[in-house]
Automatic annotation (TrEMBL):
InterPro entries referenced in this protein's UniProt entry, alphabetically: 4Fe4S_Fe-S-bd (IPR017896), 4Fe4S_Fe_S_CS (IPR017900)
Keyword Cell inner membrane among UniProt keywords: no
Entry-linked Pfam families: Fer4_7
The 4Fe-4S ferredoxin-type domain, residue ranges: 1-30
Protein name as it appears in the record: 4Fe-4S binding protein
Keywords: Iron, Iron-sulfur, Metal-binding
Transmembrane is among the record's keywords: no
Domain of life: Bacteria
Coiled coil: none
């Protein structure tokens, strides 16, 4: 399962894009999106999902 970004809550700060170890987060159109084919949920790399850890708005990067 991949993570997703709740677009209506996203402040478009970009923090998640730079922290994603798999390069799954990109700015598309008017919002950041997570490519579910690339998202590894940071398994085997970190104890917590980096997108959710750095996001300033709680519950914006969530499991899909």
């Amino acid at each position: 399962m991949a993570f997703k970004i709740i677009a209506s809550q996203c402040t478009q700060c970009g923090a998640c894009e730079f922290e994603c170890p798999s390069g799954a987060i990109k700015f598309k159109g008017e919002a950041y999106v997570i490519d579910p084919q690339k998202c590894t949920e940071c398994k085997d790399a970190f104890d917590a999902q980096q997108c959710a850890s750095v996001c300033p708005v709680e519950m914006t990067c969530v499991p899909a």
